[in-house]
Specification:
Number of domains: 1
Helix content: 25-40%
CATH superfamily: Spore Coat Polysaccharide Biosynthesis Protein SpsA, Chain A
Structural class: alpha/beta
CATH architecture: Alpha-Beta Complex
Strand order of the largest sheet: 5-4-1-6-10-7-11
CATH class: Alpha Beta
Largest sheet: 7 strands, mixed
Radius of gyration: 18 Å
């Protein structure tokens, strides 16, 4: 049996309501945010195909941001929810392994993509995550602390999240149109197991205007840089 082809699906169909502008096409170090994730997937050395899932009404803008640097990356229409966009990505490729990543995490590295894909090949899934280091407390509706939770064994989940195709197809079939916070949750809801892959603290998520400003500050100070040599390698569907 041959080695399964790998597709990286960059989810970029969110509304960006909390940011106030389209974070996918926003400038980060002179480069659209979406291109940072594409560059990392490209630099991983394990991806055969990259596709971007965008909101239907934003496809022209996303294509314009992507195609000048990566003309072979496909942009496909996403759904009304994150889960629906993941299923759109699955339908858009026949790859045996699909690594799904949120475009709002531009500082992902190629090595993290590679580790998640390696885990998916070996165990069926590979979900980037960080073990919780902070004290976690549960509070009531008034904000009064109720209990301290044992943090041992708790992980803060990131992306990429890579899966064998069959794992995602089973999760989709069992989802019955439901929506989940991420793909790992959909897999678990379908009775599957997910394997944690040690993520990276720099793999922050841009949600608010403050997050974007912080990301720009990291780039300006030279503390974050786009992976590889942007746009010099073209990832072609095979």
């Amino acid at each position: 049996m041959g080695v399964a082809r790998v597709a990286a699906a960059i989810l970029a169909a969110g509304s960006s309501r909390r940011l106030g502008e389209d974070k996918v096409t926003a400038e980060l170090g002179g480069i659209p945010v979406i291109c940072w994730s594409i560059a990392a997937a490209d630099a991983s050395g394990v991806v055969d195909e990259i596709l971007v899932v965008a909101a239907p009404d934003r496809i022209p803008a996303v294509e314009a941001a992507v195609r000048s640097r990566y003309p072979d990356v496909r942009v496909v229409a996403g759904g009304a929810t994150r889960t629906a966009s993941s299923w759109s990505a699955l339908a858009a490729t026949d790859a045996g392994i699909v690594a799904i990543h949120d475009a709002a995490r531009p500082f992902v590295t190629g090595s993290l993509f590679a580790r998640c894909v390696a885990s998916a090949r070996r165990d069926g899934s590979g979900v980037a995550a960080m073990p919780l280091a902070d004290t976690v407390r549960r509070a009531d509706e008034a904000g009064v602390s109720v209990e301290e939770l044992e943090r041992e064994g708790l992980w803060q989940v990131q992306t990429p999240q890579a899966f064998r195709r069959g794992v995602l197809e089973h999760a989709k079939a069992q989802s019955l149109g439901g929506s989940f916070t991420d793909d790992a949750a959909a897999v678990v809801a379908a009775g599957g197991r997910t394997h944690m892959v040690l993520g990276e603290r720099r793999n922050l998520k841009i949600t608010t205007a403050e997050d974007l400003a912080y990301a720009r500050e990291l780039v300006a100070k030279g503390l974050a840089a786009v992976a590889g040599t942007l746009g010099t390698k073209r990832v072609l569907p095979r």
